[in-house]
Batch of 4 targets.
Target 1
Amino acid sequence: MDELELRPTILLVDDEAMVLNALQRLLLHNQEWEVLVAGSGAEALEIMARQPVALVMTDQRMPEMTGLELLRKIKEAYPDTVRMVLTGYAEMDVVVNAINQGEVYRFLTKPWKYKELLETVQAGLQHYREQTVRYSEISKQLVRANLETVMALAEAIELKDHYTKGHCIRVRDYSLRIALALKLSEDFRRDLVYASLLHDCGKIGVSEAVLNIKGPLTEAQYREVQRHSILGFEMTNKIDYLRSASVIIRQHHERWDGTGYPDGIKADEISLGARIVAVADTFDAMTSSRPYRRARDFKSAVQELLDNRGTQFDAEIVDLFVSLLDLPADLSEAVANPRRLLLVGAQAEQLSELQNSLPAASYEVFGVATLAEARRHLAEVEMVICTQHLPDGDGIDFLTAINHLQPQIIRIMLIARQEMATLAATVDQAGLYAFMTYPLQPAETLALVENAFEWQRMACVLKFV
Ligand SMILES: [Fe+2]
C-alpha cells in the first residue's frame, strides 16, 4: 500500500521540447502527482527502469520509436502503468486500432483542451489505483487459496497414513525455523512450506497395506514405498505454483553422500530445500510414534542426526537445526495461549455454542453486545466474530474499520446460512477470513477457528499479508 500513498508519477514523452514544456506546465499546477519528461521513447524506458510510473502520456509521431511502439514495450514490461497517447487527426485510425486491442487506455487529440487533459489524466490515475488495489487483493486471495489447497491435501495424506497425524505440520514448522535462521527469501520459504506439507503426497499412489506394515519391509515392499518421491514429484510438477516445490518433494530422500533415492544425487546437487526437509522429516519421524516402533526421545534423535551429518545429511543444516532446538520455538509459541476471541452482538446461546465448540484450554471466548464495548476489548483479542446488525451500528463497517486499523486481528462474520450469497462482497471489503454460519456445528466451528489461526500464523511468517 505504501506505493499508493506516495504521489503517483506521470511521465510525458514528446520529441518536441515546446510541447513537452507546455504539457508539463499545465500538469505541474496540480499537487496530486509528480511529473517527469522524456524527449524520446528510449529515454522514457530508461526512466521507467529506474522508478515506478503510474501513467505515461506519449506523442504518437516521434522519430525512431513511435508512441504506440513505446506503449507496446511498456505494456509488456510494466503492465500496470496506464498508457495514453497524444495524436493528431491524421493518425487517428492507428490509435483507435491500438485502443481496441487494449494497447492504450485513452487518447487525446492535439491541440488539447486543458480541462479535457486534466480529466483524462485524473481518470487514468484513478484506473491505476483501482487496478493496483484489485491486483493486490486478488494475489492475496490466490496465495491463500493455494495454501488452503495444499493444507487440505496434506490432511488427506495424513488420513491415509494414520500414524503420521500432525507430521506434515511439524515438518513444515521445523523446515521454516531453519529457513528463517538462514534468512532465506519469502519465495523460498513459500516453496518450502508447500514442499514440506506435501513431501509425502506421493504416498497416495502407494498401497495402503504396504504403508501400514508393522515391522521391517521386504525389498519389494521397500521399493514400493520409495516410489512416493517420484509420484509426489509428478503430481505437483504439473501445477504452476508448486513447480519449485516439486523438486524438493522429489529429492527429500536423497542423501548427502549420494546413496539416497530416487536419483542418487549428492551434496550441493540436492536442492537446499530438500536438504532442509530431509533433516526436519527424519527428526520428526524419530520423535513421533510409528506403527512399528515407539517415539524416541529428543536427545537420542538429536544424536542420530549428529551421527549422520556429512553422510545422510548436510552437516551445516544439522548443526543449525540442533542449535535451534535449544531455543524457544519461535513459530508455535509466538501466539498467546489461550487465544482470545471476541464475539460481538450474538445471542447468549450462540456464545455458549461457540464456547462449547472450542477447547477451553486453548481458546477463551467472551461476548459483548455492542460495538462500543467491542472497541474497548480490541487490544486484547486475536479474533473478532461479529454479527451484522448491532444496536449501535453495522457489523460490516466495524469489521472494515478493523481491517484498516488492526489487520492482524482475524475477522469473521456470524450470519445465517441463507445470507451467504447477499453478503459475499463483504469478504473483500472487510478482508474477512470467512463467514461463520449459525446454528453452529461444533466440529465445523473448531476446524474453522483452528484453520484461521493456522492461516494467520503462516501469513505472518511468510509475509503474505
Ligand atoms: Fe517421504
Target 2
Amino acid sequence: MKAIIYDSYGRAEEMRLAEVSEPEVLSTGQVKVLIHGSSVNPVDWKIRRGMLRMITGKKFPKIPGADFAGVVVESESFNFKVGDEVFGMVKATEGGCSAEKIVVSEKNIAHKPSNIDFIQAGVIPLAGLTALQALKDIAKIEAGDQVLVNGCTGGVGTFAVKIAKAFDARVTGVCSNRNIEYSIKLGCNEIIDYTTQDVYTDDKYDIIFDTIGNLKYRKAKKMLIRKGVYVTSGISAGKMINSFIRRKCKTVFVKPDRKGLIFLKDLVEQGSLVPEIQEVQPLYQLVTAHKLSEEGKVNGKIAVRIR
Ligand SMILES: NC(=O)c1ccc[n+]([C@@H]2O[C@H](COP(=O)([O-])OP(=O)(O)OC[C@H]3O[C@@H](n4cnc5c(N)ncnc54)[C@H](OP(=O)(O)O)[C@@H]3O)[C@@H](O)[C@H]2O)c1
C-alpha cells in the first residue's frame, strides 16, 4: 500500500510517498480500515521534528497521522463488519494514518456520521475529541456556562466553540484581528482580539479552555468563578505541574474514545457540529500540508485526501 514515511526526525521534506507492506494480521477486536480521509494535527509535525522522541523513540520508518475516516475491509470485531463506514483515531505517538490502510482496535472507532463525507469525517477525531474531553469530561460544561476559548479559530478551537454552543454555553473567543468575522460565524457571542486587546479582563468564566496554552494560569485564574476550571491542550511542564497541585488547573491529553466519537457523531447528525476545513490536500502533498500547519495560522483543519 502507499503511505507517507520518514526515516529520521527533521524537516517536512524528510517525508516521502512510498510503497510499504500492508498492516499485519488482525487480533480479536481489531479491524482493517481502507482510509479515505485523514487530517494534519500539530502533534504530527512535533513528532516528525523529534520533539517527542523520548516517547516516539528511534524506530524508523515512521508513518505520520493520527485520525482517519474510511471503510472496514477486514474485521475481527463483533461491532463492525466489512463495508461499515467508520472514523477514529490512534495514539498520535503511534501514527500510521497517512496511509491507505490501518489496523485499529474497535475501541478507537465509531460509525461515521451519515450526513458528511469521508473528508469531513476524517478531520474530526483528534481535534474534536480533544475539545470534547476538555469541555465535557474535565470541565463538566453545563447549559448557561460562560466559556472562554483561547485560540477559537484553530483545529481544537473551532470544535470547542461548536461543542460549547451545542451545550447552550455562552462563548467568548480569543483570536487575532484577521479572524474576528470568522469567529462570529463560528458562533462566538463575544470576541477578544488578542492583537489589540488585553485577554485578561474583569469578566468571569465558568471555563477557560486555552487551546494554545499561552495564557498565564496565574492571571487566568482571576477570571474564573469560584468553581471555575482552566483547562489547556497546550502541553508544558509548568501547566502539567499546576495540573497536579491546583484544583482549578487541568491539562487535557486526548485519548481514543469510542463513546466520545459517538457523542460527536450525534452532534454532527443533529446539525450542531459541522467541521471547519480550511483546505484539502492530497496524500502526496503532505509536505505542503505539514508546512502550512507549522505556520500556526490554520483556520479549522487541513484535511488529507487519500482516495
Ligand atoms: N493535549 C492534547 O491532547 C492536544 C490535542 C490536540 C492539540 N493539542 C495542541 O493544542 C494546540 C492547538 O492545536 P490546534 O490543532 O488547534 O492548532 P492549530 O489548528 O494549528 O491552531 C491554529 C490557530 O491558532 C490561532 N492562534 C495562534 N496563536 C494564537 C494566540 N496567541 N492566541 C490565540 N489564537 C492563536 C491561529 O489564529 P490566529 O492566526 O488568528 O492567531 C490559528 O487559527 C497545539 O499546540 C497542539 O499540539 C494538544
Target 3
Amino acid sequence: MPKTKRDYYEVLGVGRQASLDEIKQAYRRLAKEYHPDRNPDNRAEAEERFKELSEAYEVLANAEKRRLYDLRGHEGVSQQFGPGGFDFRRDFTHVDDLTDLFGDLFGGRAGRSGAGGLFDLLFSGGGQRRRAARGGDIRIRMRLTLEEIASGVTREVTFSRFEVCAECQGRGGKGTMACPTCGGSGQVRRQSSSFFGQFVQVAPCPDCGGEGSKVKEPCDKCRGDGRLRQQRTLKVRIPAGVASGNFIPLHDEGHYGPGGRGDVMIEIEEKEHPLFVRHGDDLVVEVPVSYAQAALGGKIEVPTLNGSKRIALPAGIQSGKVIRVKGAGIRHLDGGKGDELVRVMIHVPSKVGKEEIELLKQLETAATEPVPSPRRPA
Ligand SMILES: [Zn+2]
Ligand SMILES: [Zn+2]
C-alpha cells in the first residue's frame, strides 16, 4: 500500500504564504537536524526524513513547481520527477544550498559530485562495518635484456608473502571477546564541532578493525595477526614484446587476507642494450662503413639480436641513410615483428698514412662527381 504523502508545507513546517527565504531557512534547519551522522541510532529514519524534506524543498523552492503543487497538490507535480517519484540522486537540483552547510564536513567534495555524491557521503559514509580486507598486492621489478624481450622468456621469481597462519587458521588465536575499545559495536564516535553545532562522526573501530570482537588468547605463532610471511617461488612466462613500465599481473598470488589474496604485479624494466636502441618494436643500430665501401657497395655484416647477418649495401649510399632489415626487430605483443634499422655512417679516418695521402690526392683529382654545393638541411 502506498504511503500517504504529507503536505510539503507541513513537511517543512512553513505556512502556505511562506517566502522563498523562509522555505530555504526551514529546509536548511531541518536538513541539519536529520543529518544521518547526527542520528546514529536511527539512521534509517533520519534518511527517510531527509529525503522527504528534500522533495518538499525541491518543489517549493521552484516557482513553477510550487504553482503546480498549489493548484493540484502532489498530482500536479508528479510529472516533475522521474519514474517511481522523487529520487534524491536524480531529481534534487539544489545541492548548492546544502554544500555550504555540509561542506566543512566533507571538505567540499559533495558539491563537485552533485546530488548523487552528496547522497553517498550522507548515507553510506562512516559507521558501516568494514568488509573483510583483501590481502595486499606485491610489486616485483624484473630487469630483462632486449634479447629476452624479443623472444619472450620464462623466469623464476622468489618473494615473501603473507600466508594464513596454520596454527590458528588465520583467526589470530583462540576464543573471542567483545572489543574493549568499542564495546563490541565495531564503531567509534568522534565529536567534532562546526559553526552550526556539535557533530558526531562515526568511524570503524581502529582496535578491532570494525569487527566488534577480538580474540581472547592471541596465537603465539603469528602473534595474533593470523598470517605469517613465507617465501614463494613462481615461474613466470613473460611474453615477447613487453616494454619498460609494463605490468604482468599474477592474480591471487599476493598477500593473504581474510577477503582473498592480493595480486603479484611484475613490473618490467628493460636493460640498456650495448648496441641497439629500441623504438617501439623496431631496433636501431649504427654501422660505420668506409668511403670505399659506401661508394662501391657490396655485402656488409650487421649485428642482429640473433647473431650477425649479411645485408646488401647499395653502391653510392650516403652517410646517415637507413637500411631496413625486415622482421629483425621485436615481436609485437599481438604477433607480427618489428624491423631492424641499420643506420649507415661513413667512417672518415682520423689518421692517414703517407701512402694514403697520395692516393687520396689522386682520388680528389680523378673524382667524376663534384662535392655538391651548400644546401638547406633536409
Ligand atoms: Zn596464528
Ligand atoms: Zn573495536
Target 4
Amino acid sequence: MEAKRREFLGTAIGSLAVCGVARGEETPNGELVASPPVAMAPRSDGIEFGWSVTRLCRGWIELEDGSGVRRFARDGWGLVPQGDKVLRVRLDGLEPGTTYRYRAVTESMEGEKQRIESGWREFQTLDPSASSTRFVVWNDTHDFSDTLRELDRKTPAADFLVWNGDADQNKWREEAAIPSTLLSPGGTDFTAQRPLAFSWGNHDARGTYGFRVPDYIATPSGRPFYAFRSGPLAAVVLDTGEDKADDHPSFKGRVASEALRREQAEWLRKEVIKNPAFQDAPYRVVFCHIPLRWTDEETVYSFDHFSKRSRDLWHDVLVEWGVQVIVSGHTHRITKIDANDEFPYAQLIGGGPQLDLAAWIEGVADKKSLRLKVRKLTGETAAEMAFAPAR
Ligand SMILES: [Fe+2]
C-alpha cells in the first residue's frame, strides 16, 4: 500500500496525499484533491476525466500534443468545470489512436487558496481502424481493497478496462463513500494505463445515494449503455439493472430497471445494429454485469443468477446483430458456456471480491481471432475462449 502511495505521489506535483483515504473520512491535511485524474469513457475523438475533490474548486485539463499545450476548461454549460465533490472535464476533437500527455489542474474557490497540478501523464484515444486491440475486464470487486490493489498490479496496460459492475459493496449509504470507491479504488491509480469503460452492476445503483453515481462516472453517451469500436472489436456495454423485480420490497420503490432494459432493446435495434461500424466489425462483444445465460436456468433463486428479464428483450436483436460472446460477472464463479443452436452466443463469467475468487479477463483481437482468457491472481488461466472473425 505504502509503495503504491509513493508511486502515485512520485508522479504528482504538490503534496497530493490521495491514496489510502478511507471511505467517508476527511482527506489528510485538508488536501484539495482526493484522487488521481481518472480517465473514463474513451472514444476515438476524446475522453473524459473525473477526479475527487474535498471542497469547492474549479479545474481543467492541460493537453500537450507536440504543437503546444491546450487547455480544456469548459463544462458544456458555459462554465469552467466546478464542484465540491468531483470535477469532470470532457475532451473532444482529438485524433484517433493518438497518445497525448496531460495533467489535471485544480484551484480552490473558497477558504485557503490552493492549486494542485497532477503530474504529466498519458492516455491514448481509441483507434477504430487499428488491426488489433487489447482490453481487460474486472468484475465484482465490491470495494475489496486488497483485491483491487492486486488486480491493479497484475492487470496489464490495455486500450480500455471494462469495470463490469458491482464495484460497490456497502450500497452507497452515504455519498461520501462513492468517490473513494470509484475514483481511487483500494487507493489505486487504476486508469493510469487503461482508460475506464464503466458498466453498471446491480450493487452500483443500490442504497440511498446510488442515484448519485452518474455524477462521478462518465460514459461516452452519458447513459449506462453505449457502444464503441476499438480496432476489429465492436463493444456494446449494457445495463442489466437489478437482479430482482422492480417492485421487490428490498428496493423500497427506488428501482426502474425494466424501462431501462426496454429502452436498450430499442437503442440496439435503431442505432447499434444499423451502424456501419458495428455491422462491419469482425468481432462483436457485449459487456453486461448480470449474465444473459447460466448453467442451470431451471432453479429459482432468491435473486437472478442470469438476467432473463434482459435476455427476453435483447436476445433477438443481439442475434440479428451477430453478437459472439457476452462477458459478465455477478455470480462470482468463473464460468464459460459455449454457443448452441438456441443461443448462438457464448457466455463468459469471471471474478469475485475475495483474493481467491478474484480474476481479470484479458481480450485480444486481431486479424486471426478474438481470444479471451480469465486469469486468476496466481497467474493461472482459469478459462479461455476464442472466436473467428464474424466476417
Ligand atoms: Fe451483481
